[in-house]
Write a sequence for this structure.
């Protein structure tokens, strides 16, 4: 069941990341895509892959938040709610074949290494914590830039 | 066949976004989605076969993906600073204007 939920979330967030009008919201949706991918890896026993996906995803998001705030044109165009719901519906519909044709036949947990063991023995914890610090700093800078752009309103 | 269809769906979304979006940042996001779809397929097939080698090789895929992202972002910054916009249509219009002015 959890694999189905993750696959739906993955495709819905991918649709939102591509077709939302606001760049910052697109990047936020892309963070959901990376998170769902990492969770999918972890649930299937690919713990190292999940850790690396999380770390690389956070780095990419940091860059995208900054560049999205700096390089995008200042526009007041907002995504209408109907379009957002349509995108969510499209993501759900796209994930249906994956759910009914392949996901349920998957059986995971092939990796003999547990998640805690991987974090402790392979310094994955350091990577994850560094990634969290970088993400926090980036979010702070993005908020400051956003406030400056709006003239402190 | 596990996860192959999910990966194909994500690849299709990425390619559709790559072809239809006019914002350079959205094009970059599309390329990220395509790369994620490729690694998803790769990791899931390796995981289902019970081999750790697939996960080890994933590091190589991630480093390549990061290098590609860095190059694309550098190009994006250069183009945006040069033309003052990140919209592909507006960049093409500006380029055409410049060429016409250079000819006359």
């Amino acid at each position: 069941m959890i694999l189905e939920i993750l696959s739906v979330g993955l495709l819905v967030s991918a649709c939102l990341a591509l077709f939302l009008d606001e760049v910052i919201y697109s990047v936020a949706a892309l963070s959901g895509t990376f998170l769902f991918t990492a969770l999918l890896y972890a649930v299937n026993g690919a713990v190292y892959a999940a850790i690396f996906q999380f770390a690389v995803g956070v780095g990419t998001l940091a860059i995208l938040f900054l560049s999205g705030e700096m390089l995008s044109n200042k526009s007041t165009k907002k995504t209408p709610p109907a379009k957002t719901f349509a995108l969510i519906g499209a993501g759900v519909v796209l994930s249906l074949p994956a759910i009914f044709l392949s996901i349920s036949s998957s059986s995971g947990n092939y990796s003999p290494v547990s998640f805690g063991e991987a974090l402790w023995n392979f310094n994955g914890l350091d990577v994850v914590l560094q990634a969290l610090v970088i993400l926090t700093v980036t979010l702070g800078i993005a908020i400051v830039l956003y406030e400056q752009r709006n003239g402190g309103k | 066949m596990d996860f192959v269809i999910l990966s194909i769906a994500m690849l299709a979304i990425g390619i559709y976004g790559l072809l239809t979006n006019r914002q350079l940042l959205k094009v970059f996001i599309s390329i990220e989605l395509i790369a994620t779809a490729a690694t998803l397929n790769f990791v899931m097939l390796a995981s289902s076969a019970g081999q750790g080698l697939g996960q080890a090789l994933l590091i190589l895929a991630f480093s390549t993906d990061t290098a590609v992202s860095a190059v694309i972002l550098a190009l994006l910054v250069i183009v945006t600073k040069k033309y003052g916009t990140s919209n592909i249509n507006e960049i093409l219009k500006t380029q055409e204007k410049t060429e016409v002015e250079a000819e006359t």
